[in-house]
Amino acid sequence: MTSRSFSLTAALAIGLVIALSTNANGQGNGNGNGRPKAPTNNPAPTTSSPASSSPAPTASAPTGTSTPITDAGTDPSVSIVTFRQFGSWLDDASAGTPGEGYVSIGVGYWRLSGMSQINMPMLGAGVGVTDRMQVSATVPFYNVRYEGGSARGLDDIYLGAKYTLIDPTLTISEFGLAVSPVMEVLSPGAPGGRVHFAIPVSLEMRRAPFRVYGSAGYFTRGSVFTGGALEWTSPSRMVITGVLIQSYSLKGDPVLDQMMVARQRLDAMGSAAYPLGSLAVAYASVGRSLSSLEEGGTSLALTGGMSVRLSR
After folding, report:
1. Is the pLDDT of residue 69 over 70?
2. Residue of 60, 85, 81 whose CA lies nearest to 72
3. Is the pTM of this model over 0.90?
4. What pLDDT, in 10s, does the model give residues 75-128?
5. Is 143 helix (H, G, I), strand (E, B) or coil?
6. Taking a C-beta distance cutoff of 8 angstroms, is the pair 46, 83 a contact?
7. Do residues 111 and 300 touch, judged by C-beta distance below 8 A?
């Protein structure tokens, strides 16, 4: 396995790890969707997820959180559930190899105030279409537990494509630039419709044995995001990565604004990936929210799994 192919595949550790967020009510895959999965005062949960991830060899992963607030007003039979829209995506700018791809399987655990969620399995796949374009898909299944009940099912699905405008391996400065449009299909019951889009732009800079990359963009549900990663490849070929991601909710909400619920979410994580032979990579990560846990932050996020590179 070349150092380049390992670097790309190992980046998928970030994909599943970056799924740091979930909402105060749980998410099936709505981390990116920003809506409650477990109810605030209803016996039947809606769908949303604490994290969806794209364990692509390019390290892409959407995340998000929701902060549900229930306001019954003067009539206890009337319930208004409102929450912030958050979402993020992190990717590098490296190009794939035409005709080569990967498949991955992973598991994730998220702990929030009053609930926890397990995503198992988290399935991913991707393939290089040209020397500049690759496509990927992520399909997770969730099991969320909260006080008084539980829920399970198919989480949010993410379909992405990345087009590398500047390949860092083909420039003297080792600088890269890429765009990665993403379509998210949220779980049934999502307010505002199930299909939304994200438009991330990613930069990358290489200085062996280090690699720095980051993304910024917009989710059509109503949030903007930025994120960055610092990656180090050890002499033993283990890749250690640190990630910091923030998301800002654009939509105003009178209830949440009056309650001074923050519009910003900040998450951090660390991951390690190690090659198993020439075609497989094992990865694990740990992270948490740096913003308020009472407003839907994640107190602990654990992910792990394996990705297998498919050659022509």
Report:
1. no
2. 81
3. no
4. 333 334 456 778 889 999 998 889 899 999 999 999 987 888 999 999 999 999
5. strand
6. no
7. yes
Task: Give the residue from 12, 303, 51 showing the smallest Cα distance to 187.
Answer: 51
Residue 174 near residue 205 (C-beta atoms within 8 A): yes
Indicate the class that CATH gives domain 3-310: mainly beta
Q: For the segment 211-234, what is each residue's pLDDT rounded down to a tens digit?
A: 999 999 999 988 999 999 999 999
Q: What are the tokens at 204?
A: 């990358």
Output the CA torsion sign for 115, 287, 134, 222: positive
Residues 6+ apart with CB under 8 A from 258: none
Report the alpha-carbon distance of residue 211 to residue 229 in Å, rounded. Answer: 8
Omega into 168 within 30° of 0, i.e. cis?
no
Please report the DSSP string for 50-93 in residue order: S---BB-TT-BEEE-----EEE-TT-TT--EEE-----EEE---
In angstroms, the CA 294 to CA 64 distance is 16
| 112: nearest Cα among 35, 243, 20 | 20
